[in-house]
Design brief:
- The chain is α+β, with helices and mostly antiparallel strands.
- The longest helix is centred in the first third of the chain and has 46 residues.
- It has one domain.
- The relative contact order is 0.17.
- Strands 1-2-5 form a three-stranded antiparallel beta sheet. A two-stranded antiparallel ribbon has the order 3-4.
- A hairpin with a 2-residue loop joins strand 1 and strand 2.
- Helix content is 38%, strand content 19%.
- The radius of gyration is 28 Å and the shape is rod-shaped.
- It contains two helices and five strands; from the N terminus they run H-H-E-E-E-E-E.
């Protein structure tokens, strides 16, 4: 049978509602994909902020005078480095660069070479990035190491 001009053929009763079912299935999959992408993106941005903060802290530790005769830094040195990681400044700021980051999460490791400071390593431990559907624990990462370039002035 040839279609008549201007005549629209109606679908049979068996096809009615199938587009709604297809939309429901397809939109469910798309929402899951978008939510996963959002979660990954948020975690990636937080990790990038932490990585930048750790690198700034290690760089700062590598250029300021080291005031301790051994591998254990003085409390003033350690506080200044932790503040640099937390707030982007050697003095305490109003809010941390990454929410939920506390001084206990920041580690500083000083290695000595032939009796003088050789490298400054800053890392994050015990921090969790809380995202929409879960959290990611960061232990020992991010990490940054810089060779010591400052003046060694032991007490």
């Amino acid at each position: 049978m040839r279609p008549v001009a201007g005549h629209v053929r109606k679908p049979s009763c068996r096809c009615r509602g199938s587009s709604m079912v297809e939309f429901a299935i397809g939109s469910g999959v798309l929402i899951a994909v978008f939510a996963g992408t959002l979660q990954f993106g948020y975690t990636f941005v937080q990790y990038n902020r932490l990585e930048t903060a750790v690198a700034q802290g290690a760089r700062y530790a590598s250029v300021i005078p080291y005031d301790s005769p051994n591998a254990s830094p003085s409390s003033a040195f350690l506080t200044a480095v932790k503040n640099m990681v937390l707030y982007g400044s050697p003095t305490q700021g109003a809010s941390p660069v990454v929410s939920g980051l506390v001084p206990g999460n920041v580690n500083l490791n000083v290695t000595f070479v032939k009796g003088v400071p050789g490298t400054m390593t800053v890392s994050i431990a015990g921090y969790k990035v809380d995202a929409l559907f879960g959290s990611s624990a960061l232990t020992g990462k991010p990490i940054a190491t810089y060779p010591y370039q400052g003046v060694w002035a032991p007490l």
